[in-house]
User: Fold this.
Amino acid sequence: MIRPFLLAASLIWCAASAAAPDAAPVEITWDDLMPADYRPDELFGDADLSTLKDGDPRAAALLQKLQKLWQEAPVVQSLDNTQVRLPGFAIPLETDTKTAKSFILVPYYGACIHVPPPPSNQIVLVRAPQGAPIKEAFDMVWVTGLLRVEAQQTDVAHAAYTLDASLVEPYAE
Assistant:
C-alpha cells in the first residue's frame, strides 16, 4: 500500500520535474499550440470573401472582428511550463546588428508583416537574454526552451505564448 504522503510527494516531484530546465524538450508543431477543436477558418462565418473589394466597409468590419477573435484565440493550457523545441520564422524585436534578445516566432514566412497577423495562439514571443543569432526578419530557426501560456502585446503582434529560449539555432530538418 502506498502511503498518502509518499503519493503526494511523488506527484509534487513529477510536477516539478516536468518544468525542470534540464528536462528533455518535447518537439512540438504549430498545430500543437491550438486546441484540437479550434477552427479559425470558421471565424469567417458565412461571409463571401470573393465579393469584398479594397475599401469596402464590410471588409473593414470583418477585419476588425477577425482581429478581435484572433487576439482571443484559445491556448493549450497543458503546455504551460513545458520544455519544448519549436521551428519557425523569427521577427526580431530587440536587436543589435548581430543578435536578437527578443523576437516573435511565427509559423510561416510573411506572418505579422501582412495584415492580418495569425491568431495569437500561432505567435510566440521569444526571450533570449543571451542573444540569438538572428540578423534578418524571417530567419528560420529552431527554438528550445521553457514555453509559457503567457499573453504579451508587442509592437508587431499579440502573442498568446512566451518562450524563454535556452537555445536558438538555424533551422535544419
Notes: The chain has a mean pLDDT of 83. The helical segments are 4-18, 57-71. The CA atoms of residues 52 and 59 lie 6 Å apart. The chain has one domain: 32-170.
